[in-house]
Amino acid sequence: xxxxxxxxxxxxxxxxxxxxxxxxxxxxxxxxxxxxxxxxxxxxxxxxxxxxxxxxxxxxxxxxxxxxxxxxxxxxxxxxxxxxxxxxxxxxxxxxxxxxxxxxxxxxxxxxxxxxxxxxxxxxxxxxxxxxxxxxxxxxxxxxxxxxxxxxxxxxxxxxxxxxxxxxxxxxxxxxxxxxxxxxxxxxxxxxxxxxxxxxxxxxxxxxxxxxxxxxxxxxxxxxxxxxxxxxxxxxxxxxxxxxx
Length: 245
What we know:
Blueprint: E1 3-5, E2 11-12, E3 15-19, H1 21-29, E4 37-41, E5 46-55, E6 59-69, E7 77-83, H2 89-100, E8 104-109, H3 120-140, E9 148-149, E10 153-154, H4 155-162, E11 167-171, H5 179-184, E12 191-196, H6 204-212, E13 216-218, H7 227-241
Parallel strand pairs: 1-4, 7-8, 7-12, 8-9, 8-10, 11-12, 11-13
Antiparallel strand pairs: 2-3, 3-6, 4-5, 5-6
């Protein structure tokens, strides 16, 4: 059954009206017609199963049959603090991290970040594109929410934001501390932050600052992973360890 995201205010008295780009996609790409079923998600973890009643050039109306809790959304919330990589690597990271179940992604400007976002208009266009990629990945993977991709923040601000998490992990290539042992000691947490450095890695000063603020430094094994691999590998292990895969 096809699945689309809506805003909660689109639901009214047992009916939902779809507008915007999704109308064309439903009509002309999927070729769904009156009488066909759709699943709609309001982005808060609620799924609406319904049947198409009316199709016009600008909108589609669906009669809601039932409202259920989304079973596809992880109970564990993982926030990825990603050192901003160059070129299209961030787009790959967003797409795959959303598929794996991250709750939120925060791009971080670190000392060894190559990309410099100095133009606010260009930055906002980039953030808008990142969020569209997140939405597409959420649709494809049948998520119950669309993970938010934040505007880039400084390293110090990222560390400050992370204090809301129950457990914060930092992948560091010079660390020997086992990820397995840390996760086994924190089986009761429900909100984890993971910090990943950019292409050049984290500096010793950044590592020290994170540890001072409560981050647990962990190893991802004997091999050095690229920045676009490390966060995805760590997310996968965490989801598996907490029975979310």
